[in-house]
Amino acid sequence: MSSATKDKAAERRLVARTNADVHQRIADAADLLGATVSQFLIDSALERANRVTQEATRLRVSRDAFVRMMTVLDQPANPAPRLQQAAHRYREVMSDEHPQKDPERDTDAKP
Predict the structure, then answer these.
(1) How far is CA 74 from the centre of its chain?
(2) How far apart are alpha carbons 99 and 37 in whole angstroms?
(3) Which end of the chain, N or C, is less surrounded by CB atoms within 10 Å?
């Protein structure tokens, strides 16, 4: 497959249908910028998509709320009882399966 064919395969088509007045207004605006209608539509849609994504994924809080949130996050967490129990069980199981070697009783230990 040639490079040009690969580039074409990677491109996706966007189609928009509208009335003549809206099309003319978009064409006029594109012309004022020296762009094609397609370029104008893609640039405008991408700009709007970025703005919508930023607004939907950013959390805006007051400075006081931010300081309070950071203070809480900087404090150590209180371990949940079930997590403590699980850690204790894990340590017990691991110590049963892998007991610590006593160097005084280990015959393989080197003097």
Answers:
(1) 23
(2) 74
(3) C
16 contacts: CB under 8 Å, gap ≥ 6: 41
Structure tokens at 64: 């006081």
Q: What pLDDT, in 10s, does the model give residues 40-95?
A: 999 999 999 999 999 999 988 999 999 999 999 999 888 899 999 999 999 999 98
Q: What is the token pair recorded at 87?
A: 């850690």
Q: What is the pLDDT at residue 102?
A: 58
| Predicted local distance difference test score (pLDDT) of residue 109 | 52
Q: What are the φ/ψ torsions at residue 89 (nearest 5 degrees)?
A: -60, -40
Q: Domain span at residue 85? A: 7-97
* Domain contains 103: no
pTM score, whole prediction = 0.51
Count of structural domains, the chain: 1
Is 14 among the domain residues?
Answer: yes
**C-alpha distances out from residue 82 to 53, 77, 79, 93, 94, Å:** 38, 14, 8, 16, 18
